[in-house]
Amino acid sequence: MKNPVLVVGSVALDSVETPFGKADEVLGGSGTFFSSSASHFTPVQLVGVVGDDYPVEKLEPLAARGVDLAGLEKVSGSSFRWRGRYRHDLNSAETLETHLGVFSHFRPNIPEQFRNAPFVFLANIDPRLQLQVLEQVKKPRLVACDTMNFWIESRRPELVELLGHVDLITLNDAEARQLTEHTNLVKAARWIMDKGPKFVLIKKGEHGAFMFTRDSIFFAPAYPLENVFDPTGAGDSFAGGFIGYLAATGDLSESNMRRAVVVGSAMGSFAVEKFSNQRLLEITRADIDARVQEFRQLVAFDAEIGE
Amino acid sequence: MKNPVLVVGSVALDSVETPFGKADEVLGGSGTFFSSSASHFTPVQLVGVVGDDYPVEKLEPLAARGVDLAGLEKVSGSSFRWRGRYRHDLNSAETLETHLGVFSHFRPNIPEQFRNAPFVFLANIDPRLQLQVLEQVKKPRLVACDTMNFWIESRRPELVELLGHVDLITLNDAEARQLTEHTNLVKAARWIMDKGPKFVLIKKGEHGAFMFTRDSIFFAPAYPLENVFDPTGAGDSFAGGFIGYLAATGDLSESNMRRAVVVGSAMGSFAVEKFSNQRLLEITRADIDARVQEFRQLVAFDAEIGE
């Protein structure tokens, strides 16, 4: 059996406006996007919380594809809701409303049967909760985390402590600069690696992603899509493809991690083609493989420059 | 003998402030950066204008490396001067002062012996002057042009006319969006190709460059430098490496054009390591080849994702 991935993150309801349309109360949240993406590669164990108003039947397609929902707590109260809008350039979301609901009292409780998960992804939640998860799991092979500007500002000491306990962090370029106070991303990545992680994945949205290790840099472009429909969830879908592929292969060699970054980029590129996790649920493994080949074509050149 | 490249552009004096230092009245201008870069690959024929205050002896290193200055007019008046500043993030220049001087009356006059140049680069000048150059040259194999926001605003009809006469255009992402009124770069590139050019090179600064053709897209990242010293001239150095390499090889196949984009990216990455064209004059062909190999390493991955 393939290595399962444990993900702890949000399960939300998103209402999104883009120049191309509107979606109301659709599946959202980092845990949802990550799971939808990673489940193409390996079994997923999702830990999160929803209110008693959550349309859990909408998660059935995830369960059907190997996402174990035993860690999804349902508590009394309203679910995490986010309402946002993207303007013409689709580059940044404008948050119109955030309603944390039951998520504001989330205390991750990892079911016994998930505690041996060899691959763990701590999606973007309070670093104190991310640390609590690590107290509950037993010797994972790879622990990865995500974070955001809000935690960098409000929970810096805990976030820096977390860095000492993870193998890999994914964050975007603005967050990397904010966290490290280095404008230059090479320096920012080194600052982070000095705090613990062996791998730093810096996501630049439409400009691609860098993977830094102690002695190498890998870059994967974003796929130049002609029609980006809704950017919500691209980063978590990227992480799901990346970690899901690593777990499925169980291979943490540099060459396989590079391939995993491209797989993640492919998954991010699918995620933005439709609202919510809709496109991620439609695609097949053949679609993914074909897109990875397109990435290969996109950057392929022969370095022999003799004239 | 290798194919020469004719370049028509500015030869200026730059005064630049960056977070790392100041340089006063150093060599600048699109023609200067292009020539400094292209001359690593092939003979260059430079057409431009300077005032009688220009320290032409500072161009001797260019002449020594095969830049023919017979087309550099010296006229009475003061030279083109630009004064600019880069803030901490180095992403965009703040122009403090532009003094066009003799450049404001520039009428390119292509010397007879340059009119057969097989490769022509029309650097960023008034599209009406770019068109005048094309009336003077005889059947070049490849004509490329650059442009900027100022001409897109003030000379749109002439710029669109120019597009019908060039094989290739280089411009940055903001300019591509401004010219085409498409936010999406794939659509922007197609809009431009519909006006004439077979190749569209969209430069994204620190985010790399795309080369679009009718049926392919190639992407080259920017080199992740730890120390960017002065971004001035990066785009023209890129163009110099790109066109210079194409001219030297005389090979316009897709695979060679991809290699040329990477050579251009390498030259752009050297240009920003020191003030003015200083670094471009220091480097050797071995340095360039080594950096091209580093680009290869930066994007290398094996697309076989079988588990």
Description:
The structure is a homodimer of 307-residue chains. Chain A is α/β, with parallel strands linked by helices and 307 residues long. The first copy, chain A, has a single domain (5-299), classed as UDP-N-acetylmuramoyl-L-alanine:D-glutamate ligase. Chain A is 36% helix and 25% strand. The first copy, chain A, contains 11 helices and 13 strands. Chain A has helices spanning 30-38, 60-64, 127-136, 149-154, 156-163, 173-180, 185-194, 234-249, 254-271, 278-282, 285-299; strands spanning 5-8, 12-18, 21-28, 44-51, 67-75, 81-86, 93-99, 119-122, 142-146, 168-172, 199-203, 209-213, 216-220. Chain A has a 9-stranded mixed beta sheet, sandwiched between helices. The first copy, chain A, has a 4-stranded mixed beta sheet with strand order 3-2-6-7. In chain A, helix 3 (127-136) runs parallel beside helix 5 (156-163). The first copy, chain A, is globular, with a radius of gyration of 18 Å. The mean pLDDT of chain A is 95. At the A-B interface, helix 7, strand 13, helix 8, helix 9 and helix 11 of A face helix 7, strand 13, helix 8, helix 9 and helix 11 of B. Chains A, B: Residues 38-279 form the Carbohydrate kinase PfkB domain. Chains A, B: One of its GO terms (molecular function) is kinase activity. Chains A, B: Keywords: Kinase, Transferase. Chains A, B: It holds the Pfam family PfkB. Chains A, B: This is Sugar kinase.
